[in-house]
Structures are given as C-alpha cells and as structure tokens.
Specification:
The structure is a single chain. With 222 residues, the chain is α+β, with helices and mostly antiparallel strands. It contains 9 helices and 6 strands.
C-alpha cells in the first residue's frame, strides 16, 4: 500500500500512468510534458516515480531519426499492472480521514500537529531532492520547492512581491477536504517550510490566502 500511495498519490501521475499504458512503445518525458502541459523536469519526475515503484520500465532510444546525440529515455509499462487492483483514489480517502481526525482535536493543537506532519514530510522530500548538499541560494531553493509541489498536484510557482518572495499554488490536492476542515492547510505550510529548511536553512512561512477559504490561489509568504 505504501508503494502504491508513493507512486500514484498524485492525480497527474495517475493520468500519466494511464497515458503510458496506451503506448506500447513507451513514452518520453517530452511527450508527457506536451500532453499534460508540464515542464519537462516535472514530467520526468513523475515518470521516475512510477519507474521507482516498478510500474514503468526505462530504456534508451535514439528516436526514429537516429543520430549521434544522447539517447532519450523511454518509459514503458512493465508487464501486467500487478497490485493496481487497489483503487487509485485511495489518497483522497486518506486526506478526508486526516481532515476529520484533525477536526477532533482542539484547533490550536490540530494546526500545530498538521504543520509538524507537513514539515517532516517536506524535510524528507528535500533529502531526496538534494542529498548531502543544499541549494546555492534561497531563490533557487524556492523554485525547487515550487517544482516539487507541482509534482504533488499543487501547480505552484514562485514570484517576487516587493521585497518578499511568495509561493503561489493555483491547485491543491487537499482542496475538497480543506473546504470542510481548513486546518489541513497547515500541512501545506509545513511542507513548504520543511523543504526550504532542508534545501536552504531555517525559514519562517505564513499563509496569505487560501483557495479553500474562497481566495483565487493559495499563497505562502516566505
């Protein structure tokens, strides 16, 4: 179950897997990027996650035109989709249950716990993104965090606002649950702080706006 959640815990990644199943000769990161309007690095991240879980096989291909350039990776579905009888929307159930569990706690305690869980996960992500070394600058770290959040379904980007930098997330995998239990937004805030801490150093984050509370986008000040 942990492996399935890791590989398919993102709606876009599930669609990429289904897209790959439609192509017997496999797909490239460029093809996936074009099909789903993603940055090639984000598409490659999704494909590598699926490959790491054993759901796709990776091979090198020089394409139909041949040539002497570096071969591109092709990702093919690896045999029968063993284990995929598990519903691929199990992550939605887990988010709903998390929201309900947090709602049973006193508000301040629930927010603290949610943010701590998000921060721990963010630190784990940072360790895989940049093992043994941090980013060279805060701006570079912030853009790396935006890419990682996008790969998790947040559609995030970083931008400057006066003398500050913000993360803007135009989509959120927690959205439906967060509308009923806004405290779950603290998980998002914690993830941002955890990743930035792992990639750059200690930072302070604050939520400026939230889609779950009617705003146009979720904005985190850093």
């Amino acid at each position: 179950m942990v492996a399935v959640t890791s590989a398919f815990g993102d709606p876009t990644r599930r669609q990429i897997y289904l897209f790959s199943r439609e192509h017997d000769d496999g797909v490239t990161a460029g093809e996936v990027a074009e099909r789903f309007a993603l940055h090639p690095n984000v598409a490659r991240h999704h494909l590598d996650k699926l490959a790491a879980g054993g759901y796709l096989e990776v091979s090198a291909s020089r394409g139909q035109q041949g040539g002497a350039g570096r071969p591109s990776k092709r990702y093919r579905v690896s045999g029968p989709a063993a284990g995929l009888e598990v519903p691929l929307r199990g992550d939605d159930l887990m988010i709903t249950l998390l929201g309900r569990a947090l709602a049973m706690l006193p508000p301040a305690e629930a927010e603290t716990m949610a943010e701590e869980v998000g921060e721990m996960y963010g630190r784990e992500l940072a360790a895989h993104m940049s093992p043994g070394a941090g980013q060279r600058s805060f701006r570079a770290a912030l853009h790396a965090v935006a890419d990682a959040l996008t790969a998790h379904g947040f559609a995030a980007h970083a931008e400057a606002r006066g003398t500050s930098l913000v993360l803007i997330k135009e989509s959120c995998p927690f959205f439906d649950t967060a509308k009923q239990h806004p405290v779950i937004c603290a998980v998002d805030r914690g993830m941002v702080r955890g990743m930035l801490t792992g990639l750059y150093g200690e930072v302070v984050t604050a939520s400026e706006s939230s889609r779950a509370q009617g705003d146009d986008a979720c904005v985190t000040l850093v």
